[in-house]
């Protein structure tokens, strides 16, 4: 700060500022940052992650938080290690065990959706996925498929599309053709697109088809119909990540830390009993 006390600069890389999930994480870090801590956020596509890292390090970042997968991890690891810059991973880096991390119970989340749809009598259930699946989403999918298989079921169709509202919208044609009575859409962002696409086709949710999303972003309860989804405690994730990396800066030799949060099914209007 201006008085010359020790400033800490932390760089945070997320996939996009436009996704409400990451916007909430950013907000919670900002809200919880002590006054002597500066945060620099970058929204980065896969291609320029390396540049994003360099640019944050050049600006003097003393620690980094990654909300997206790190390509060439060995290289990045070495680059940061050499400069004594610790880093933490959250959300999309779920299978990395070699540093501080904040994760949620993705497998349970996927499983909760499957149990819910099964309990409503659905047997023809579609799965709509982003075409680039990150580790955490793989676990989400695994939990869903695992629980479906306990009822001797597999998805009627698996549709892949971009992780966006447009992707959701674009998957609707195939969804309708599959004659599924329910669909699990891997995140709310895509689920919102699916709801819009079904509305264009005059297909009623949940009377004709049930739709479940994932994240419980703040739009979920304002959609028509309101969206059944899995709540990730996104504000706590942001806060925990920030506290953990600050702790790391204060205690560089601590063993690696993990914070693990539970998720919760939020049942709203978009899912109902099979006809
Ligand atoms: O909306 C962003 C999605 O990508 C979330 O499901 C989150 O878990 C992330 O991986």
From TrEMBL:
Q: Which UniProt keywords apply?
A: DNA-binding, Repressor, Transcription, Transcription regulation
Superkingdom of the source species: Bacteria
Q: Name one GO molecular function term.
A: DNA-binding transcription factor activity
The answer to whether keyword Cytoplasm applies is no
Provide the protein name.
Answer: Ribose operon repressor
Q: Which residues of the full protein are shown?
A: 56 to 330 of 331
């Amino acid at each position: 700060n201006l008085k010359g006390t020790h400033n800490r600069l932390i760089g945070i890389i997320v996939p996009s500022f436009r996704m409400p999930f990451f916007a909430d994480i950013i907000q919670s870090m900002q809200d919880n940052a002590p006054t002597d801590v500066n945060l620099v956020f970058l929204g980065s596509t896969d291609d320029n992650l390396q540049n994003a890292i360099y640019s944050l390090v050049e600006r003097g970042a003393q620690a980094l938080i990654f909300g997206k997968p790190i390509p060439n991890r060995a290289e990045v690891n070495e680059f940061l290690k050499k400069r004594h810059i610790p880093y933490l991973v959250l959300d999309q880096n779920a299978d990395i065990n070699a540093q501080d991390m904040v994760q949620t119970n993705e497998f349970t989340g996927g499983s909760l959706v499957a149990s819910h749809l099964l309990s409503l009598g659905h047997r023809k259930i579609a799965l709509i996925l982003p075409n680039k699946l990150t580790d955490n989403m793989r676990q989400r999918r695994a939990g869903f498929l695992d629980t479906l298989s306990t009822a001797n079921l597999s998805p009627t169709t698996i549709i892949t599309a971009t992780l966006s509202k447009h992707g959701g919208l674009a998957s609707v044609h195939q969804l309708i053709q599959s004659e599924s009575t329910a669909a699990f859409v891997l995140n709310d962002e895509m689920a919102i697109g699916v709801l819009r696409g079904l509305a264009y086709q005059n297909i009623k949710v949940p009377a004709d088809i049930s739709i479940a999303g994932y994240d419980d972003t703040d739009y979920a309860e304002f959609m028509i119909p309101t969206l059944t989804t899995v709540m990730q405690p996104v504000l706590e994730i942001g806060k925990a990540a920030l506290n953990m990396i600050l702790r790391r800066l204060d205690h560089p030799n601590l063993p690696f830390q993990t914070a693990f949060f539970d998720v919760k099914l939020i049942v709203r209007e978009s899912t109902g009993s099979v006809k």
